[in-house]
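Hey, resending since the last one bounced:
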Amino acid sequence: MKQPTQKRTIQVNVRMTEEDFDLLNQAADRLWPGAEMTRSGIVLSLAKIAAQNTLRHGSKRGRSAP
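The structure tokens again:
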């Protein structure tokens, strides 16, 4: 059965260092080896996983200062 696709309606621009993106890219390669992913797909997928894990496990660390 085909999963319904979600329409993305909110745009977010992110600036990060090459080292930060390399870290995210390595994590994506470990989770989805060989998958063709866009930069935005990597960031969105990993952010969604982190958000779900945080809500599931109830992290109480709070936000870090910019």
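The mean pLDDT is 87.

Sorry for the duplicate.
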